[in-house]
Design a protein that fits this description.
heterodimer, A: 435 residues, alpha/beta, TIM Barrel, 2 domains, eight-stranded mixed beta sheet, 9% strand, B: 142 residues, mainly beta, 1 helix, 45% strand
Chain lengths: 435, 142
């Protein structure tokens, strides 16, 4: 029997004991926050038993976690924590009762402690089943967001192919195969315990698999026990889907928008901000009527960071949470840290002034349970503060400006638009980088 | 560093009881996890510290007895502090306690002015209980 010592609590995460992810291609991943490029595991939903994947193949990750080792695929969470942002690790730990600020005692008190110990004594294996899922339904999408990629947008995939950015389209979506969907739902139905399934796309609402899976889960009676989450890009409204969602015991809705400035049209091309805003209001109203949790999902980039406060203000007024899963990793040239320093400092100051103009219970207190409606305001202000910290302290990446310019020139050539129509103040530094 | 086989550190239960300003001092019994910590007349403010196992459920009973309502109507006691590992149950979470007494007074209180028992029970390991009462969201079970 191996005797484990957890050397460093800061690297431990409980996620691999209850969570896994299915990518659009059907590839299995151990975490929704992990860096996909560093996934050491290769199983696919279509070829492998995902329970075996969870219980056995993920053992290597659990073994490293149990020792407190640094895991290459888990870089995003430490980065979030460095800038005061609530990380996926902190959220997942909290779901089993572990508080990072009181780790030793809450770890030993965790509802999963015996399971951690079991894995420590069994080479990282577990007999548990996943109960918290993220399911990527496929890349069908009606948007071609500039920071997205072909694996998550069919529109972008076609455009990239046409522009020669890629030579091959991404693999087929696993949900294209009805048998895969049936097999997946059947396995879920056999699970001893499923708490949460979060669906993303592409655009979730235009993927036929979303409706099929919702219906099949209802047919199997799982709607009374499973919480459903999904993310939508605010371009679709489908009453038949709303009707299915209303049958579930709990809905957590993620709505993707970057800002309320017209530059949102450039970034989330070809959506139009007036229409997006109208659909956003409709979703928020529907969520309020049905007691659903709403969170605005943002992916701040060099183009939208200056207008981020418009979305925080909307969230603040409407008491809706804001969540960016992580600081943008790829494309690296689109990170807010690619902005010249004077822009970054000005935006940080503006955002900080906005935060300071609002009343908070305690801005220094971390709100890890960002889904607590009573703490939504603190959560919003805390998230905004993490961007202030990021803008002030993240390394300078202006060296990526030429790569950014090269990329957007290709896209703009295809789309017939120009960033300067939305952000003329960027002209000097973009021009100097070859725009 | 955490050794999975270490005995976990205990948690600290800290209670301060103070008699009401009255010539007649209250008679009370303080019990933590069924072990009597104090059973006497409370002459002055007194703090009790007890360490309990991290994973044990915790029950705390404070009983006021033998009070004569006619002879000393103001007699009684106050719970000035009840901290568990620095988590302040009193006064923030007083509403989670019960006070069963001979006057059927059942509002949340830390003033024991009637013969009866003020109790608070954590029916699961303290930190799991704290997670639930402080509304930290899902607490998944294996």
């Amino acid at each position: 029997m191996s005797r484990y010592i957890l050397d460093s609590a800061k690297n431990f995460c409980s996620s691999p004991w209850f969570h896994m992810r299915v990518l659009s291609s059907g590839q299995l991943e151990y975490c929704r926050w992990m860096s996909a490029a560093k996934n050491p595991l290769t199983s696919n939903l279509n070829q492998h038993n995902f329970i075996k994947f969870f219980q056995k193949e993920m053992s290597s990750v659990r073994r490293q976690m149990l020792k407190g080792e640094v895991i290459p695929g888990c870089q995003r969470c430490p980065q979030m924590e460095e800038h005061g942002k609530i990380s996926g690790r902190q959220r997942q730990l909290l779901k089993v009762g572990i508080d990072v600020d009181n780790f030793a005692k809450t770890f030993r008190s965790s509802t999963f402690y015996d399971e951690f110990k079991y894995s420590a004594e069994n080479n990282g294996d577990t007999e548990l089943w996943p109960q918290d899922w993220q399911i990527d339904l496929g890349n069908y999408c009606n948007s071609g967001c500039v920071m997205c990629g072909p694996a998550s947008s069919s529109k972008l995939a076609a455009e990239f192919k046409k522009l020669g950015i890629i030579t091959q389209l991404p693999p087929k979506n696993w949900t294209d195969d009805d048998e895969s969907i049936d097999r997946f739902v059947e396995t879920l139905a056999q699970s001893k315990k499923i708490s949460y399934i979060h669906f993303i796309g592409g655009e979730t609402l235009i993927n036929p698999a979303f409706k099929k899976i919702l219906s099949k889960l209802i047919d199997r009676g799982l709607h009374d026990s499973v919480s459903i989450g999904f993310t939508t890009n605010l371009t679709v409204w489908d009453e038949s889907i709303n009707g299915l969602l209303k049958q579930y015991k709990e809905i957590n809705m993620g709505v993707s928008i970057e800002c309320l400035h017209p530059v949102n049209d450039y970034v989330r091309w070809p959506s139009k901000i007036d229409s997006v805003r109208s659909v956003l209001d409709d979703w928020v109203a529907l969520a309020n009527e049905n007691n659903w949790l709403t969170q605005i999902r943002i992916t701040p980039t060099i183009f939208t960071i200056a207008h981020l406060r418009s979305i925080y203000e909307y969230a603040y007024i409407n008491k809706v949470g804001v969540e960016s899963c992580n600081f943008l990793e790829n494309p690296a040239f689109m990170r807010p840290s690619v902005l010249p320093t004077d822009f970054r400092q000005q935006i940080a100051t503006d955002l900080e002034n906005w935060v300071n103009s609002k009343e908070s219970l305690d801005i220094n207190k971390k709100v890890i349970n960002t889904r607590d409606p009573g703490l939504v305001i603190d959560s919003i202000l805390h998230d905004a503060s993490s961007y202030v910290d990021y803008l002030r302290n993240h390394e300078d990446e202006t060296s990526s400006l030429p790569a950014l310019v090269s990329y957007i020139k290709k896209l703009e050539g295809s789309r017939g638009n120009s960033i300067l129509d939305y952000s003329p103040e960027y002209e000097d530094f973009l021009t100097s980088a070859g725009y | 560093m955490i050794d999975y086989y270490d005995t976990p550190e205990p948690i600290k239960v800290c209670i301060t009881l103070r008699p009401c300003e009255d010539e007649t001092k209250p008679k009370c019994v303080l019990t933590i996890n069924n072990v009597i910590q104090f059973d006497n007349k409370l002459e002055e403010s007194k703090t009790f510290v007890k360490y309990v196992n991290l994973l044990d459920p915790i029950s705390i009973d404070i009983k006021l007895h033998s009070k004569s309502y006619n002879a000393s109507p103001e007699s009684g006691l106050f719970i000035d502090m009840l901290d568990i590992d620095d988590f302040k149950i009193v006064h923030q979470w007083t509403h989670l306690a019960t006070y069963i007494n001979d006057k059927n007074y059942n509002e949340p209180t830390t003033h024991l002015g009637f013969n009866g028992v003020w109790s608070i029970t954590m029916d699961k390991p303290f930190y799991q209980w704290q997670h639930v009462v402080t509304d930290q969201g899902w607490l998944l079970q294996p």
